[in-house]
Amino acid sequence: MLTAIVLIDTEPNLIPEVASQVAALRGVSEVYSVTGKADLVAMVRVQEHDDLADVIADRVSKIEGVLRTETFIAFRAYSDVDLEQAFALGLDD
User: Fold this and answer.
1) Taking the CA of residue 93 as centre, how many other CA atoms within 13 Å lie in the half-sphere pointing to its CB?
2) What is the mean pLDDT of each run of 10 residues along the chain (93 residues)?
3) Where would one find coiled-coil regions in this protein (predicted)?
4) What's the CA gap between 52 and 24, in Å, rounded?
5) According to the model, what pLDDT value does residue 52 have?
6) Which DSSP string corresponds to 42-80?
7) Does domain 2-88 have CATH number 3.30.70.920?
8) Can you tell me the distance from the alpha carbon of 62 to that of 42, in angstroms, rounded to the nearest whole number?
9) Contact 9, 39 (CB under 8 A)
10) Which among 4, 9, 22, 89 is most buried, taking Cβ atoms within 10 Å?
């Protein structure tokens, strides 16, 4: 399974409509409205690299109101336990 985090900039007056259309796409598991440099963040989970192009370049980017996208491909997921160990720095409680 491949996971991509997609930042989406939209026309400000179309954020809810764009979010609904993106969320309805096959391969999109979640869509969030966010603060910061992007208007929306979409989580895309697919089986093949070609599927990323299908979802992001061929579908998300062509939704009316989408101005630009920026995609981050996830390499590895860390569980809460892994994160706790990474930040513990070997210090005793």
Assistant:
1) 2
2) 96 98 98 97 96 97 98 84 56 53
3) none
4) 15
5) 96
6) EEEEESSHHHHIIIIITTGGGSTTEEEEEEEE------H
7) yes
8) 15
9) yes
10) 22
Enumerate the β-bridge partners of residue 72: 5
What is the residue type of 15? I
Residue spans of the domains in the chain: they are: 2-88
Q: Tell me how far CA of residue 32 lies from CA of 41, 43, 49, 56, 92, in angstroms.
A: 5, 9, 23, 16, 37
Report the candidate in 38, 42, 47 with the shortest Cα–Cα distance to residue 68. Answer: 38
Cβ within 8 Å of residue 42, ≥6 positions away: 5, 6, 8, 22, 23, 28, 30, 31, 32, 60
pLDDT of res. 77: 81
What does each C-alpha distance from 57 to 22, 34, 50 come to in angstroms? 12, 21, 10
- Tell me the sheet residues that pair with 31: 42
Enter the pTM of the model: 0.83
